[in-house]
User: Which sequence fits this backbone?
């Protein structure tokens, strides 16, 4: 059990990991964590590139009413997650059509969709009249009790989503970076955008089953935002996104296992730490370079003076 | 027995009116400035602020107001001209939300036992029927104060929103207005969290304002429509929750907002469709 005093942390990292992985449920948690970190990283990278964080956040929250509704109806929560996330994605994709004059209208629509799906979630929970602990789990996730079957299902969805992303990746990148030129060159910009939102819905539905609806967004946005600060080259920053996501998730699981504090806190904190670090380093880079060159020129001047 | 004989219903109507007035007007500018995501972020920050207050045993409202106003100003500092990039906002509030979960655990483990799940749900989903008379009056006055403040800065704020560069050139303090507006958004968020909850107040911010934008292009008319629709939806939602006790009030309010928004968008689209037809015919 995470947070159990029987599992004590020591400075021997190898022993700690062995201890942690002696539990089958933790091994499954790591397998699941690896799968979701990669999926969320790739999809999130495009989301950040396209500046669709608001839409992404709204779609990821749609998992909550989905899961609550599934519990109410007595069906597997996976169906609820997929149904609601993909439906929310379709509504937002419809609102993002070119006939819509302003980004203002689109953001109002997204906001209304978000409030409405959350209100539905609340209604389902109150109709169910069930255990409030479950609400916390739906919102904040739990890494306990992940079975082999769950992992296989996650892997299957991840393969499907990543395969689709690979298929539309190049034109989507083109359409994201320069929609006008892409449209002129015959790329179906709007169709790609809608397709991407649906894939985002499928990915968030997958990830929220482990992390809860409120924390999917952290895995979507922060590794990608960090990587895009570090480098502007698409391939490299995509790779970095996945790497950062993996490290953050693995470390988060380990810390959550050995302490009483929840997984969501560690994952968001590590990811945000990486983001702030990247931000500061990029900000400090030019300042440092300027200082070095000033020192160098001062040295040159001093040398010239001593030579005279 | 009439509706007004129930003290909880009177309190809910008073508080709801104040909150809806503030949300309607603030939301109109949020939508116009394409800053709805900021409202979204602040509503999650409200969750963390409230739970931090609970965890450290201080007054809940102190935590709410401190967290939302501080983060609102921080988001202003992070962006150019008092507006932050969506990705920066997303990263900041995802982390703040993680902190909220941390405070939640802190609170639950310190209090070992009962009543903990309740705190989460009431912060996230609100409890407008649970307000005392004093809280309701406070909510009404704060709502009216925010409404008045936005009305007072409406003209320059509108100018700065529609054409920032020209406004700045004409000596409008664009940056200061941006910060002042963000602080007002923070106050509104904290106040509305107590009534409809952190997760649902976005509907009150975005719904009536989106509907007003779909119905009219004239800004002052839009402000009036937005505030009016917000108050109307609030009353409608409260009545619905009163007569159908199975529905939680936060749900019925949000549902009414959603229906109003959808109706306004359909109407706006039909009208612009007719306009296009008329143009082609001519």
Assistant:
């Amino acid at each position: 059990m995470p947070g159990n005093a029987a599992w004590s942390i020591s400075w021997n990292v190898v022993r700690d990991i062995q201890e942690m992985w002696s539990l089958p449920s933790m091994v499954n948690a790591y397998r699941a964590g690896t799968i979701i970190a990669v999926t969320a990283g790739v999809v999130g990278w495009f989301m950040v590139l396209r500046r669709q964080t608001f839409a992404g956040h709204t779609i990821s929250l749609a998992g909550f009413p989905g899961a609550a509704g599934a519990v109410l109806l007595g069906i597997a929560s996976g169906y609820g997650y997929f149904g609601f996330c993909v439906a929310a994605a379709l509504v937002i994709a419809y609102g993002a059509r070119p006939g819509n004059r302003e980004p203002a209208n689109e953001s109002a629509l997204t906001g209304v969709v978000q409030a409405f799906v959350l209100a539905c979630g609340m209604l389902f929970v109150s109709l169910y009249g069930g255990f409030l602990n479950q609400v916390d789990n739906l919102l904040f996730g739990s890494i306990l009790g992940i079975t082999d079957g769950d992992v296989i299902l996650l892997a299957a969805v991840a393969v499907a989503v990543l395969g689709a992303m690979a298929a539309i990746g190049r034109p989507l990148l083109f359409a994201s970076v320069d929609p006008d030129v892409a449209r002129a060159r015959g790329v179906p910009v709007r169709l790609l955008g809608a397709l991407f939102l649906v894939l985002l819905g499928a990915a968030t539905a997958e990830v929220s089953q482990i992390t809860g609806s409120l924390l999917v967004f952290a895995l979507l946005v922060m590794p990608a935002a960090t990587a895009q600060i570090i480098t502007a080259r698409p391939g490299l920053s995509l790779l970095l996104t996945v790497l950062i996501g993996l490290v953050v998730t693995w470390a988060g699981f380990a810390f959550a296992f050995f302490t009483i504090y929840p997984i969501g806190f560690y994952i968001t904190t590590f990811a945000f730490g990486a983001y702030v670090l990247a931000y500061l380093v990029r900000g400090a880079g030019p300042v440092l370079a300027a200082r070095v060159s000033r020192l160098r020129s001062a040295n040159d001047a001093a040398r010239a003076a001593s030579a005279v | 027995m009439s509706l007004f004989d129930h003290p909880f219903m009177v309190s809910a109507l008073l508080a709801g009116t104040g909150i809806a007035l503030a949300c309607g007007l603030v939301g109109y500018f949020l939508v116009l400035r394409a800053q709805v995501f900021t409202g979204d972020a602040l509503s999650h920050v409200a969750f963390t602020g409230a739970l931090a207050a609970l965890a450290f045993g201080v007054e809940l409202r102190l935590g709410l107001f401190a967290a939302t106003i501080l983060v609102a100003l921080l988001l202003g500092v992070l962006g150019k001209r008092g507006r932050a990039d969506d990705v920066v906002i997303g990263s900041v509030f995802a982390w703040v939300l993680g902190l909220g979960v941390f405070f939640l655990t802190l609170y639950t483990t310190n209090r070992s036992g009962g009543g903990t799940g309740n705190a989460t749900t009431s912060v996230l989903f609100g409890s407008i029927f649970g307000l005392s008379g004093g809280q309701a009056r406070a909510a009404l006055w704060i709502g009216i104060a925010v409404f008045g403040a936005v009305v007072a800065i409406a003209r320059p704020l509108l100018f700065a929103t529609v054409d920032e560069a020209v406004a700045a050139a004409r000596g409008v303090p664009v940056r200061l207005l941006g910060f002042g507006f963000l602080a007002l958004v923070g106050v509104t968020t904290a106040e509305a969290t107590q009534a409809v909850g952190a997760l649902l107040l976005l509907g009150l911010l975005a719904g009536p304002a989106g509907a007003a934008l779909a119905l009219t292009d004239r800004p002052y008319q839009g402000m009036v429509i937005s505030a009016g629709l917000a108050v109307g939806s609030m009353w409608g939602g409260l009545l619905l929750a009163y007569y159908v006790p199975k529905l939680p009030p936060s749900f019925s309010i949000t549902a009414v907002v959603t229906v109003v928004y959808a109706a306004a968008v359909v109407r706006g689209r039909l009208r612009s469709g007719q306009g296009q037809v008329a143009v082609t015919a001519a």
In short: The longest helix of chain A spans residues 263-307. Chain A touches chain B through 55 residues (CB under 8 Å). Residues 242 and 272 of chain A are 15 Å apart (CA to CA). The mean pLDDT of chain A is 84.
